[in-house]
Amino acid sequence: QQQVKQSPQSLIVQKGGISIINCAYENTAFDYFPWYQQFPGKGPALLIAIRPDVSEKKEGRFTISFNKSAKQFSLHIMDSQPGDSATYFCAAPHDTSRAGKSTFGDGTTLTVKP
Amino acid sequence: EPEVTQTPSHQVTQMGQEVILRCVPISNHLYFYWYRQILGQKVEFLVSFYNNEISEKSEIFDDQFSVERPDGSNFTLKIRSTKLEDSAMYFCAIGTGGADTQYFGPGTRLTVL
What residues of chain B score a pLDDT lower than 70? Predict the structure, then answer.
């Protein structure tokens, strides 16, 4: 079964700082790595995703860095804002499922202090 | 972004009772999923559904659980005899299949007393 290890469990950053969340996976057959953002009482919402043919993808203040050889990918939030305070999950698809079920990391609770 | 609605938003039930959670995708998608999230924990896969049948299910999805699309639109999750440990947020998700993007609904909070 696909294991996805996410760190840190919680993160406190000052406004304007950089938030970095890491994720490690086991199976090298996957081709899609999303990050989800979840606010209290809401469902996970896709934030940004990357395919392993590139090493980095940037969308606004959010960047995914992907290291295929190390089987790791990370989320960087530049100029972190209090509104970014949420729980972030990395996910990876299961290798034997054509229906693309996702295994989620344990989540990182980000708090951005004003 | 495709829209997914779920009803009810909160369901309180007694242990041993049956509950049905509903998901209504606004757009036409092929793949449907149910996930659950116990308070403070990670999101866990329950089941995927394609072409009116289960594609894959996790070990959590035992005989107490069932899914169906009774009218080709609503996608339902039924728990036949709820247990205390079934208390969680249940999320419906839709997708186009493969390992592509999945869009999550707002969730149903199930509380089993």
Answer: 1-2, 26-28, 96-100
